[in-house]
Amino acid sequence: MALTTIDLTPRVGSEIKSDLDTLLSGTVAAELRQLLVERGVVIARGIAMSDDQQRAFTRTLGNLRLGTVKSEGEGGMLKVTLDKKENPTYAEFFPGTFFWHMDGTYDQIPPFATVLTPRVLSPTGGFTEFANTYAAYEDLPEDEKKFLGTLQVVHTMQSAMWPSYEDVTVEQLALWRSYPVRTHPLVWHHHSGRKSLVLSTSCARIVGMHPAESHDLLQRLMAWATQPEYVYRHRWQMNDVLIWDNTGTMHRVTPFDPDCGRQLHRFTLNGEEPVVGAA
Ligand SMILES: [Fe+2]
Question: Which residues surround ligand 1, an ion (CB under 5 A)?
């Protein structure tokens, strides 16, 4: 079945026209996966999905993530909320989601994709933004691509969380340090043949580079990859179903009133390939 698609920006994000039965049937799953890798973000609007239906839909696209280091939530469903009563574990990490990041860089095989639906909207702000790290890589000068292709980057949870807090407790630090430290190539050579930049707030340092030079290079690449032409900003409406390719995008949420009750439900797919650099 050929999906009707509309590009939301030239470089990232497509809207599809579909319905609940079609999405649940799995008949468009292969096409959706292809579109995800090509466009980074895929959105369907006007589709009311229960939690069980969202789980079933996610399963049509791959292998449901139940968690590696920590549980991904009940039956794979994670409530994205600042409300500690709703999700005490996630609330601790939520401040980190206001900064550009990839999910699960602490895993050797980071998650492939995530399906997100809104349950309580924020009256102002609370947009979710996505930056296409395939497109950002492809536009770099050839000599820089060559150089970046030689680099490895250490990812830590501490690095991802520092920017969110003015000060940290010993307990917070211990929680962050309970996640694995992982070294990934800076340039990911995907099975598909495409290449992307593996950038995230979790990037702590470039292996073998002076910390100051490493800091400057990572900052410069982050600014490059999040230029407006690589970014899609999603303004949530009820009954949106949004899927993003975690392996070829970064994401963040824009600030909103922490007491507004904003909540989304997310189901994630396990990764399918490790971050592999040049042979
Ligand atoms: Fe995230």
Answer: 103
